Amino acid sequence: MQLYCIDTGVPENGDATLPLVILHGLFGSADNWRSHIKQWQDERRVIAVDLRNHGRSPHADGMQYAAMAADVVALLDELEVKRFDLLGHSMGGKVAMTLARLHPARVAHLIVADVAPVAYDHGHDDIFTAMRRVEAGRPTSRRDAAALMQEEVDDAATRQFLATNLLRGDDGIMYWRVGLDEISAGYEAIIAPPDGDRPFEGATLLIRGGASHYVPDRYRESVDAVLPNAEWQTLDGAGHWLHAEQPEAFRDAVNRFLAAS
After folding, report:
1. How many whole angstroms separate alpha carbon 69 and alpha carbon 35?
2. Has 90 been annotated as catalytic?
3. For this structure, is 141 an active site residue?
4. Which of 25, 200, 246, 253 has the most Cβ atoms closer than 10 angstroms to its Cβ?
5. pLDDT digits (tens, 9 = 90+) for 37-48
6. Which one of 71, 90, 195, 212 is the catalytic residue?
């Protein structure tokens, strides 16, 4: 599995700073993090990864977290990155927790954005249905694709986010670049807890959105069992896409944590 990544390389004054590896969430990609990458790349090497079945990375059966973490480790081995700081959002946060649990010596700092190490209920049925409507409708423009999605997804921001995965084929038809069949078949693994049978005891920051339902206080015991040294921070008013809704506050939290620990 040869994953695609955005790799900024080592900046002139950043030789002593560990690389920051970024893992996106479900239906996201490395491209979603470009504004943050631009802010961080002058100080450190940033490697933003397209996970399997997402972005420009290959499609493959299986969405188990151990498999996705192994994909990332293989990429970092190829890039000769032995130790790094690791940031993951949502599904990417579970991949990050799995990687940290399976390879703790390689992760200097772990940042988990708005996800807990628990099993979640099914919550994307409307999105899968909307994306299948686009497939069946064979739209020739993003506007037409958005109209098809609107039948299932009311939120305009969600439709706009999903549309970042649309490409135009040689026949003029818009198509999904994500591995929709593979993601749908592997959805039970996506909503499952991260893999690994031991806690990650390294320095950890858990950032949650104050308006998000993904990491309520009742999950604290579950978080403590997997991330016993996690520092919690809440971005008041932010939802699940907290890094996009409050980018400066999100970066400030990450920068403070990395500088202090």
Report:
1. 24
2. yes
3. no
4. 200
5. 999 999 999 999
6. 90
